[in-house]
Structures are given as C-alpha cells and as structure tokens.
Write a structure and sequence with these properties.
about 575 residues, Cytochrome C Oxidase, Chain A, two-stranded antiparallel sheet, 2 strands, 19 helices
C-alpha cells in the first residue's frame, strides 16, 4: 500500500491552493531563473555552478598527476606546481566539497522532506547563490591573473610574507563563500524549526534532514572563525598589523589554531550530509526501516558538537605542548565512535534485508567501504607517534581523499542517482549507471590506496620531483585517476541524455517512503497541492509494519502533486 492509503500521510484539511506547473515549466526565460525564489531552481543553479568548479578543480588534479608520472620535474616549474596544487585544493575544498550536498540536494529536498512549500527565507536563498557566484569569480580572477601558491590552507608566513598579492583576493573569495554558507545554514535551521508539516515531530524527521540540520549548525558557528582568520591575513598583509609576524610580537601558530578550529568542523560540513544521503538509500534498497534511528540521530548531533574540540590533532608537530596533544588525541578517538555507529547501523539495516542492487545502492555500498577505510586511517593520524611519522606525507593525502572524495563525492553521485527521477521527471539508463558506480569504486581505490604505501614509506606531499623508488606507486595512482575521471564523466553524459531521451518517471519510481515521493516528478512550484499531515515515523519498510512486499503494493494515486 502507499503511505497515503496506509494512513501515515494524509492531506491537511482545507481546500487545495492552486499552483502553476512544475518548476521546470512554470516560468520561462533566463531572467526567470536568475530571479527565482523557488528552492528547486536555486538548487539547480548551484548544481550548474558546482559543475563548473568541479571541472576547474579536476583540471588541477590532471596536471598534478601528469607531473608526477615521472620522478623528474619535467612538466612544470616548482612555482607552477605550487600554484597548481593550490588551485586544485582551493577550488575543490571551498567551492565544491563544502557546498556540494547541502546547496544542491539539500536545497532541493529539505522543504520536500518536511512537507514545506519552500525554505523559510527564499530571497536569502537566492542571495546565497549570488554570493557564491561572486566569490567564485574573485577566485578565478586570482588564479588566472597570477595564481596562489600557499596551498588551500593559506598558512602564515607563506600568505603574509612570501606569496604574491593575489593570495588576498583568494582569501576574500573564501570569506565571501563563507557568508554564502552562513546564509544557507541559517535558512535550513529556520526551515526545520518553523515549517515542518503537521505531525512531523523531531523524531519523525528523515535522517537526511537531521544531517542537514547538524551541518547547518556547524556552518553558522564555525564559518565566522574562518572569516576572522582570513581577515587577519588581509590586515597583516595589506595594512601591516602585527598579528602573525613574530618579529613584531605576533604568533604564527595563532593562524593554525583559528584555521583548524573551523576547518576540522568543516570536514563534517562535507561528510555529515553524505551520512544522511547514504541512510536514505540504504533503507530504501534494503526494504527495511533504518536500524537504530534514534542512535543515528544522536550520532549526528554528537559529531556536530565534538567536531569543535579536535582541531589540535592537525598540530601535533607544530610546537603545542605534549599534554595538549594528548587531550586532542583522546578527543580524536572519541569522535570516531559516532561514525562507527553509523557504519554498524547501516550494516545491520542491510542484514536480512530484501536488497536490490540499483545504481544508488551500489554507490552507497561503495561509500561505506571507502569511508570505513578512510575512518580507520584517521585513527592512525589521531595517534601521536604515527601522526608525527606521516605528517605532510602522501598518507595524509590518501586519508583526506578517502573521506572527502571517496565519501562525499561518492555520496553526491549516489544521491543524484537516487533523486534524479524526482528532480527531472526522467529515468536514466540503469545499466550505465551501475557500471559507473562500480568503476568509481575501483578507480578511486586504484588512485589513492598506493598513496598510503608511499606516505608510510616517507614520500612527502607537495613535491614535483621525487626519488625514483616511488615512481611505480605514482604511475599506479595516475592510471587509477584515468578510471576515476571516466567514472565522474560518464554520469554527466547519461544524465544529460536522460533529459532528452529518458523514459518518464513516476512519482515514486523506487517505491520509497518519505514526503518527497508523495508529490509529482518534477514537483510543482509549491511542492504540494495540499500540505500533508504526517501520522507515523519514517522508513516503515518492514513487512510486519507495512503489509505486502513493495512489488505487491497498490499504485500511488497522487498524480499532479496532490496528497
């Protein structure tokens, strides 16, 4: 039976309010998109913008792997190589990974999943996109005009004394992008608090909503610290204020403390939404309610809170006291617990589930494998003796990419595959999608696992030339990067094809639970013809709670978005 028929979701009392056609056809012309306040259109604007930055950042990765194919420095000068890995890191971290899921899938789905017709502040939502675009343009100008060579962390004294003046433009770009994140976070928090459908209690919220809520709290609390630290760089570089220069009484380690106080929580800005996406996919294709829903919620909140207390493990070799390092080491082990809870709960959800292996599920399984390995290697970095040994080596590069790319990017592709029929009203070729998901897993492992070996053997990062004994590992990574690039490009091709030739999607092609599946595909301008009232908790897939197997359910009778 459908959720509507089962009585878990019912229409609110009162007449239906008329709305135009779906968001793809309601308004035409470029101006209607650039001035829209529809959260779904703004999500698509973010998708297009992030795709452009993904291409720019990917270009930097290609140039890095080409240079490292041979031990000699034969493609770029040392300065050019510094600018290239800075381009790759700055674009990918600040202009792709941080906003990737919250500003795209989150923007599109949050109101739909809680039964709202839009975000709480639609104009602020549009403003956040314009701030993001403006920040991106500033960064592109800095990169094209002269480049930045400090790395994506803008460490002092590189940024305050030795880099060219374009580092200030890049820092201002990141500050402006931070204001965009704050606007989005405040909007999400207000929406969850104020616009939930009747009956949508806190512990009836889908886990993706909880993940976006926790992410928004981190955005709002941590991002101002990043803005302050980068503004201090601008103040010292442009106005000569003695903030970080020890010759004038400054403290160069102060910047690292300020930067990592934001940037370690920023890791969870990138990965917490991924947890929500994977939870939605796993429970759907296992046909079982999520195991330990309450524990999953508290694990999200635990990560959001404790994430502010572990920044010092990035500074074990920076001169902080041994006692301070021991405290941060302990807290770094503590924060691994909620991540482990999620992996165990996903595993138990799969246990005895009626699992099917559609493309979103393959992406989810790949995420669980890659994230688990990335998380386990994080425990190595939390241990002071090992961290001292592998600091600034390719071991750190591999760990970071297993979490951020193997985790966040894989989850983004999985979520896009899962909700693509809802976003566009079209189905994509399932065979190609499954192939791309499998290729992404093996391409990623082939690219980054050799870096663990290199790093533990002492290969330092950020060097264009290296000893010949490391060449075999770099060649393996470069060959794997070719497979990974194909895995990233292939979905762009078949998803674009589906827009023109894909079969029409039903309102709920996966037979999933959740309010977003109880409206038309694509949704109308106001999401729901009649606002729903929620009567039960999420993820009621279990046969004893729901009735017949999903293949025997009655077809949904809610065409046009009316519940």
């Amino acid at each position: 039976m459908s959720e509507l028929a089962a009585g878990r979701v019912r229409p609110a009392e009162g007449p239906a309010e008329p709305w135009p056609d779906n968001y793809l056809t309601a308004e035409q012309g470029l101006g209607s998109w650039l001035l829209t306040t529809d959260h779904k259109r703004i999500a698509l604007l973010y998708m297009a913008t992030l795709l452009a930055f993904f291409v720019i950042g990917g270009f930097g990765a290609v140039m890095i792997r080409l240079e490292l194919f041979t031990p000699e420095q034969d493609l770029m000068t040392a300065d050019a190589y510094n600018r290239m890995f800075t381009l790759h890191g700055t674009v990918m971290v600040w202009f792709f990974l941080v906003p990737s899921i919250p500003n795209t899938l989150g923007n599109f789905l949050l109101p739909l999943m809680i039964g709202a017709r839009d975000l709480a502040f639609p104009r602020v939502n549009l403003l956040s996109w314009y701030l993001f675009v403006g920040a991106g343009l500033l960064l592109v100008v800095a990169l094209v005009a002269g480049g930045v060579d400090t790395g994506w962390t803008f460490y002092t004294p590189f940024s305050t004394m030795f880099s060219n003046g374009y580092v200030l433009l890049a820092a201002l770009a990141v500050i402006l992008a931070g204001f965009s994140s704050i606007a989005t976070g405040l909007n999400f928090i207000a929406t969850v608090h104020l616009l939930r459908a009747p009956g949508m209690h806190w512990f009836r919220l889908p886990l993706l909503v909880w993940a976006l809520y926790g992410t928004s709290v981190v955005m709002v609390l941590a991002t101002p610290v990043l803005a302050a630290s980068l503004l201090l760089i601008v103040a010292e570089r442009a106005f000569g204020l003695p903030v970080f220069d020890p010759a004038q009484g400054g403290d160069p380690l102060l910047f690292q403390h300020l930067f990592w106080f934001y940037s370690h929580p920023a890791v969870y800005i990138m990965i917490l939404p991924s947890f929500g996406v994977i939870s939605e996919i796993v429970t759907c294709f296992a046909r079982r309610r999520i195991f330990g829903y309450t524990f999953m919620v508290y694990a999200i909140l635990w990560i959001a809170v404790v994430g502010f207390l572990v920044w010092g493990h990035h500074m074990f070799v920076s001169g902080q006291s041994l006692f301070t390092s021991l405290v941060f080491s302990f807290l770094s082990f503590v924060i691994a617990v909620p991540s482990a809870i999620k992996v165990f709960n996903w595993t138990f959800t799969l246990y005895r589930g009626q699992i099917t292996f559609e493309a979103p599920m393959l992406y989810a399984l790949g995420f669980i494998g890659l994230f688990t390995l990335g998380g386990l290697t994080g425990l190595f970095l939390a241990a002071i003796p090992i961290d001292v040994h592998v600091t600034d080596t390719y071991f750190v590069v591999a760990h970071f990419h297993f979490i951020m790319v193997g985790g966040a990017v894989t989850a983004l592709y999985g979520g896009l595959s899962f909700w693509w029929p809802k976003i566009t009203g079209r189905l994509y070729p399932e065979g190609w999608a499954r192939f791309a998901a499998i290729l992404m897993f093996f391409g990623f492992a082939f690219t980054f696992f050799p870096m663990f070996v290199m790093g533990f053997a002492g290969m330092p990062r950020r060097y264009a030339a290296y000893p010949p004994e490391f060449q075999i590992w770099h060649v393996m990574s470069s060959c794997g990067a070719v497979l990974l690039a194909a895995a990233y490009l292939l979905p762009m091709a078949y998803l674009t094809f589906s827009l023109f030739r894909g079969a029409r999607a039903t309102d709920d092609p996966w037979d999933a639970t959740g309010l977003e599946w109880r409206t038309a595909s694509p949704p109308p301008r106001g999401n729901f013809g009649v606002l729903p009232v929620v009567a039960e908790g999420p993820y009621l897939y279990h046969p004893e709670a729901e009735g017949p197997h999903h293949s025997e359910r009655e077809p949904h009778q809610n065409q046009g978005g009316n519940l």
